[in-house]
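In this section we turn from sequence analysis to structure. A common task in structural bioinformatics is to predict how a protein folds when a small molecule is present, because the ligand can shape the pocket around it. The inputs are simple: the amino acid sequence and a SMILES string for the ligand, here adenosine-5'-triphosphate. Study the lines below before reading on.
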Amino acid sequence: MMEGKNMLSLHPLLLVGAIIGAVSVVLIIAYASIRDKKQSMGFDRHMKDGEIIRRLLVYARPYYRQFILVGVIMLLGIAYDIVSPLIVGRITDMIQGDFALSDLYTLVAVYGSILLVSMGCTYVQAILLQKVGQKIISGMREDLFVHIEALSHSQMTAIPVGKLVTRITNDTNAISLMFTTLLVNLIKNVFVVAGVLGAMVMLNYELTLMVLCFVPFIVLFTVIFRKFARRAYRKVKDRTTDINTYLSENLSGIKITQIFNRQGEKLRDFSQKSHDLGGAKREQIFIFGIFRPLVYMLYISSVLCLFYLGGKGYLEGTVFLGQALTSGTIVSFYMYINKFFTPIQNLAEQFNWLQSAFASAEKVFTIMDMEPGLPDAPDAVELPEVKGDIEFRDMWFSYVPGEWVLKGVSFHVKPGQTVAFVGATGSGKTTILSLICRNYEFQKGQILIDGVDIRRIKAASLRRHFGQMLQDVFLFSGTVRSNLALGLPATDEEIMAACRYVHADSFIERLEKGLHEPVREQGNNFSAGQRQLLSFARTILHAPQVLILDEATANIDTQTEVLIQDSLQKMMARGTMLMVAHRLSTIQHADNIIVLNKGRITEQGTHQKLLEQRGKYYQLYTLQFERERGTGA
Ligand SMILES: Nc1ncnc2c1ncn2[C@@H]1O[C@H](COP(=O)(O)OP(=O)(O)OP(=O)(O)O)[C@@H](O)[C@H]1O
Ligand SMILES: [Mg+2]
């Protein structure tokens, strides 16, 4: 008889155990099946967690007082979680026998006040953390931006813009989440779990032991969940970067897409990427969708066990190690189990977010660790002024190792001279000009400015004396004025004087708002000729000692061309000038014309001398001359 009753009484617990065991086996099998695939997931972490934490702490350190304050407030807030089940248990026990209403009121009042204090604490804590977190993150964002600004032309060419945008926005956000929510919740949850455990032990050993039986399963589920979740999260991130990169490029090039009627293809590419991102997100939600109910199942099972064991113990009046079971104990435990499971489940998810915050931090730090290209040499000097003597000595340069773009270029420009570079497209004209301003590091040879090797001149000081007018004029969104001044404290009169000098004044005056006319992104609302005039004015305003002009090939109406020709003549008279000209008529008065072919100098001399030589320049000139006459006739 006794035997049978025991078997029967074990039955419900066995059922619970069997279900949990079966689920665990399924999970372990799923886990084993993905192990080999995990290596194929893109971004590998290289930095140790410790190093990442150390570097993050550098940003958090100035706010340590606020963090301590948050810690204290947090502990106060936890009190509610620990104490409230005890009070409710007490109330339950009390209302079963005779009780004074005033006692009940007292307990309810205590409960209410603890609740209020806890809510207040949570609020203050959230506000404090948000403040600190946002400060930390803006500091980091700014550091990152400053660092990106210091990268060299070749480094910038190597990283897609969309990727940098993702680093500065999404990744810093993930890190800020860590400071504002994750860290504190992690600590809080650890305390809550410990506190709840302590309170449970105090109430009843036997029931605590029962609850603890579920812990290994929670740990197991969590470990497996983390593996899947991390994979899914990484996918989401990679695909977000992917879509950002695609967008930033294609929105800039949308005109080409429209001109070539490629909207359909672009849409297909985009929807593929959008679909991939959607898939990754679905996978993530799916994984959370499995994990949460599983933990809930464990929770419900433990509650069932509590009612079963508790009810049985209560009925049988069991006293275990001196602890009797009351109905209040069961109620308190019922509440504690909830408070025990929720933080554990949160911990698992928060560890994941923490991991991804670390991954973001690593990506951000990887960019910060990129040594700015072309750092100034330790013994680099300031150039107080430049006379304008420029010499290239046997210059060899390649953008891509092995593919020489300049092959032994040598020339000498004397102060005040105007030198023009002529040659077929791709012959290396723009490259020569950008080497003078040290936009790229060259491999062999020497460039001397006033007899000083440019590798021994501070880049900023070099660029102050050289005014570069690039082949494609870039205008920022803002106003005409802001684009001309670029932060230089200049008066409107000074700016207009520069504009008059290059004949940009007439069209600016015709603008509705003059200097304050808005400039849209990339100067879209100005014509190519107008943009070129603006870039001349910009350079003249900054009064450099050497002018460098890479003339755009874009066709300009005859009227504007006359204006540009005239302003060029004036600029030539100012000092040393190096220019690439596509209209050879512009450079007839140049002191030296250098003809380039595939990265080598083939001829040089004045216009007259080169014409007499009847070489490449002669060919080019007669060709252009005839064509112009042809169109003129
Ligand atoms: N950032 C870069 N990375 C790799 N190769 C480059 C880069 N910029 C230019 N090149 C290569 O270097 C060569 C010379 O280019 P460069 O811009 O100096 O020509 P260019 O003489 O100015 O031509 P154009 O008259 O068309 O302006 C070209 O073959 C080009 O493919
Ligand atoms: Mg060029």
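The mean pLDDT is 85. As an exercise, try to locate the residues that line the adenosine-5'-triphosphate site and compare them with your own expectations.
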